[in-house]
Design goal:
Helix content is about 80%, strand content about 0%. It is mainly α.
Length: about 130
């Protein structure tokens, strides 16, 4: 997709969401280097959001597993503390926690890269 088409698509999406109204000032870039940096920043930002969603799903998997273990232990007449201790030792809990940490570190890396590209686009625009 050409850079101009990508920019027009972004503006259409923002307009369609009601985020941009007629007469609003929209950040525009005048040369290819600025636009390339901005487009890359947008792509990196989208990738970071996808990884944050994966991290959230891993966190939810941990919580749902912990709650299921608590229900099982409660049915047997055992305490929540015992259930939490038992669940924390399971491979499902370890995997959920490691997935959450892994995806959050990837999201942080992509967000940092996106911020760098946004800064580059703004720098190129001012010079």
């Amino acid at each position: 997709m050409s850079l101009l088409m990508a920019a027009n698509r972004s503006i259409r999406v923002l307009t369609g969401l009601g985020l941009i109204e007629e007469g609003d000032i929209v950040q525009t870039f005048t040369n290819e280097a600025e636009q390339a940096a901005y487009t890359l920043a947008e792509a990196l930002s989208e990738k970071a959001m996808a990884f944050m969603k994966n991290a959230e799903e891993a966190g939810n998997a941990f919580r749902s597993g912990k709650m299921a273990m608590r229900r099982q232990f409660k049915a047997r007449g055992l305490s929540e503390a015992e259930a939490d201790i038992r669940y924390s030792g399971t491979s499902q809990a370890a995997r959920s926690i490691s997935d959450n940490q892994f995806f959050m570190s990837l999201a942080q890396m992509y967000n940092s890269a996106a911020a760098t590209q946004y800064a580059k686009a703004l720098y190129l625009r001012s010079h």
